[in-house]
Each structure stands twice: as C-alpha cells, then as structure tokens.
Amino acid sequence: MTPGRQCLDTAEGVLIALRHCTVDDAFREIVRAAQQHQVPLFTLADALVTAAGGKADCLNAAARAAVLAEWGSLLATPERFAVG
Predict the structure, then answer these.
(1) In this structure, which long-range contacts are made by residues 12-19, counting pairs with CB atoms below 8 Å and at least 24 apart in sequence?
(2) pTM for the whole thing?
C-alpha cells in the first residue's frame, strides 16, 4: 500500500469517527471536498489527518483552508489549525 493510500485510509477513519458514517461516505466526502477546493486528494487527506492530530504543520495552505472550511467545526481544536 502506498503512503498516500495509507493516509487516505486514516483520513477516512477520522471522518468515520467524527461523523459516524460509513467508509464509502467518508471517501466520497473527501473526494468531494478535494474537488470543490481544487486540492489533490492525498494532500487533502494528509491535511485532515494532521489537523485531527492537533498539529498545524501542514505546509499546503489550500489544503489547510479546505480542512478548516469542511471539518473545522468537528475537530477538537480547530483554532490550532487556523489559517493566517
């Protein structure tokens, strides 16, 4: 399994835990958000996993902004992942 796919699986797990949804629903939500925000899928997945871990070290500003817009209210400490 590639590192990108592993990260995507972890991001799906984050959404399953936050939203209590299925794996398929989580995958579709990540794909939709990546398309809507024009961010590569694996980049967005990495940013979501990073944010869920309470870290602000995602280097891709567009991915950070997308995660905050899509899931900031669901994350325990969205202010730690704020853009700006």
Answers:
(1) 14/48, 14/49, 14/52, 15/48, 15/71, 18/52, 18/71, 18/74, 18/75, 19/74
(2) 0.85
